[in-house]
Design brief:
The protein has 246 residues and is mainly alpha-helical. 70% of the residues lie in helices and 0% in strands. The protein is built from ten helices and no strands. The protein has helices at 2-11, 16-43, 45-63, 73-81, 87-111, 114-117, 132-155, 165-184, 190-200, 206-228. It is globular, with a radius of gyration of 17 Å.
Length: 246
């Protein structure tokens, strides 16, 4: 009982299933997305781009009705910065996403045959070591497009693509990986990068990816919110949260 009370104290009014949906969704994305990246070494960029995009689309479809289907700390942070979720949900979701990403990445490392471990699924490309500014710019722009797509399809009530939102968000990741994959590894999700880094205990250049994705994603959310959407109030918190801004 004391454990459940502690959990309830941390979560407040946020249902446990919302948190579990984010944890499981990101764990599955880290596993399948990372597997696609590992396989792309032999089969080409399309495996990583289409695999990650379709995987994310499926997982958003299956979690959107429960948690809102964020599955990305950058999306959650952008929702917080635009007053769509409260501080407690921000921190709880971020924790669930990071733990999910670590879990999925560790399971994938245990599952992959040894030859694939020579080319780990950490998000890293040809520019990562020598050209950090270019990596930052590429990750910034591609994450901007991803979160801009989220706001245009999920948050914009006047949008024409509500039911197709998960597919379009997944396709934005596919386009991003086609554009930047060989150069940066195609992250657009700091949890995805951090989970793989933890699985291999290799944190080289990780900070660039975290900084670029958060900057690009939060700026995209705030731009779309301020340019095209009505201001959020506590009585109108959006589809992601309750009126008490939990």
């Amino acid at each position: 009982a004391s454990v459940m009370e502690s959990v309830s104290g941390v979560l407040g009014k946020i249902p446990v299933d919302h948190v579990l949906a984010e944890f499981i969704g990101v764990a599955l994305f880290a596993f399948f997305g990372g597997a696609c990246d590992a396989n792309s070494v032999g089969s080409g960029l399309a495996t990583a781009a289409l695999g990650n995009g379709l995987c994310l689309a499926v997982l958003i479809y299956v979690t959107a009705g429960i948690s809102g289907g964020h599955l990305n700390p950058v999306v959650t942070t952008a929702m917080f910065m635009t007053k769509r979720i409260g501080k407690r949900r921000l921190f709880v979701y971020l924790a669930a996403q990071v733990l999910g990403a670590i879990t999925g990445a560790v399971f994938l490392r245990l599952t992959l045959p040894p030859p694939f471990l020579d080319t780990p699924f950490v998000t890293r490309g040809s520019l990562t070591a020598a050209h950090p500014v270019q990596v930052l710019l590429l990750e910034f722009i591609c994450t901007f497009v991803l979160v801009y797509t989220v706001f245009a399809t999920v948050c914009d009530e006047t949008g024409k693509a509500k039911n197709a939102a998960p597919l379009l968000i997944g396709l934005s990741v596919t386009v991003g990986i086609f554009a930047e994959g060989p150069f940066t590894g195609g992250s657009m999700n700091p949890a995805r990068s951090f989970g793989a880094a933890m699985a291999f205990l290799n944190f080289d250049h990780l900070l660039i990816y975290i900084l670029a994705t958060f900057l690009g994603g939060v700026l995209a959310g705030m731009c779309y919110d301020n340019l095209f959407l009505e201001p959020q109030t506590e009585e109108d918190p959006g589809r992601y949260d309750e009126p008490d801004q939990a």
